[in-house]
Amino acid sequence: MTNPTLDRRLFLAGLGASGVALTTPAFASTKPLVEVLKDPNCGCCGAWIDIMQREDFKMVVQNASWETLSQFKATKGVPDEMTSCHTGLVEGYVIEGHVPPNDIRRLLSERPDAVGLTVPGMPFGSPGMGPESEREAYSVFLIRKDGTTEVFNHYEAA
């Protein structure tokens, strides 16, 4: 019978591998937290929140008057022409309106130096605004810190 010896290098490699195995599930199960400020009477905001929860985002929602919501948008750097019905914050970024979950994931992955994302207005077929199979064309815009915007993603009409 051979007696296996445990050398320092093998021990450290095993220890490192077990550490990765133990921590990976914790990272994999962490849901991004989105804090949303919305008008209490807006049904489409609730539909977007439901979609986000199904897409594995943790949502914390606070109702606010339109005046409070408008002031919040302005202080967070959302240009007037880029506003929608609700505003969220996720990991330091603003999410304005009916932004699709995959675009938010891309934002969090790429981490651009920006205010956040917006889908201005409430385009039909965007998340929470009716069936995607009947959507009108719309764009998701990246809001830069200087107030300029650029197309982050575009969705053709279905």
Q: In words, what does this structure look like?
A:
The protein starts with 7 loop residues before the first helix and ends with a strand. The chain is α/β, with parallel strands linked by helices and 158 residues long. It is built from four helices and seven strands. It has helices spanning 8-28, 43-54, 66-75, 101-110; strands at 33-38, 58-63, 86-90, 93-97, 114-119, 138-144, 149-155. A seven-stranded mixed sheet has the order 2-1-3-4-5-6-7, sandwiched between helices. Strand 6 (138-144) and strand 7 (149-155) form a beta hairpin. The protein has one domain (32-155).
Report the average pLDDT across residues: 87
Strand line-up in the sheet with most strands: 2-1-3-4-5-6-7
> Can you count the beta strands?
7
* Beta strand %: 25-35%
Gross geometry: globular
The class by helix and strand makeup works out as alpha/beta
Radius of gyration: 21 Å
The helix content, as a percent range, equals: 25-40%
Distance between the termini: 70 Å
User: What's the SSE pattern?
Assistant: HEHEHEEHEEE
Low-confidence stretches: 1-27
Largest sheet: 7 strands, mixed
What count of structural domains?
1
Number of helices: 4
